[in-house]
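Deviation from plan, reported transparently: magnesium ion complex.
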Amino acid sequence: MNIEAKELTKIYGGGGNQVTALNRASLTIAPGDFISIMGPSGSGKSTLLHLLSGLDRPSSGHLTYDGKDLYSLSDKELSAFRRRRIGFVFQQFHLLPVLTARENIIMPLLLDRKQPDEAYLRELAQMLGIQDRLSHLPHELSGGQQQRTAVARALIAKPDVIFADEPTGNLDSRSGGEVMELLRTVGKEMGKALVVITHDSRIAGMAERRLTIVDGVLSEAAV
Ligand code: ADP
Ligand code: MG
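Because the crystal trials were delayed, the predicted structure below was used instead.
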């Protein structure tokens, strides 16, 4: 899937309290791209990710997925589109504490009234090294295992693109590195585009395309 963002601007607040969180950000994402976005706290990284994934709408600008205008969809259509085509990984894992790892992984399908593809679920769990942890609750898992469960959840609906907002921010450097390696491997083997926001220059350096954002202005460095 080709994603094209044109001049996305997000202004929060009104009157004298306006904050331009994102200033005319343009970006294209091709199938299989591995992109990192680095920038200081408050520079607009999460705002950009929310706009690129249709979690939020811009003050101005356009976004298309294979030519389809995403912001012209209703909120309901947009959330269905996200569930089917986009995977998310967050810093805080966002696993439901009362559900097992397996139940957490298949939750996006259940919300869509679909049954899991068991063979695919086994393959994912195997690749992510959580095949013997599927019946555990999140609190019985290490941070790295919790995030790998969240990665499996992001992939279960076979999305075209994964957006990860500081996916290693709550992990020590070793398990963070493992999670990133796995994200990269799974992304490559399954042909997913991967967009990772990070503070960590080592993690940003793993990406093929490295973008930076400062005061809401996005730029891509020639690598
Ligand atoms: P980052 O993820 O890089 O830390 P954010 O995208 O979260 O940055 O925020 C960018 C700027 O927009 C910051 O100045 C932040 O305070 C502001 N901002 C973010 N979300 C909101 C909101 N819902 N209302 C008002 N201001 C916001
Ligand atoms: Mg953020």
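The chain has a mean pLDDT of 95. We consider this an acceptable substitute for the interim report.
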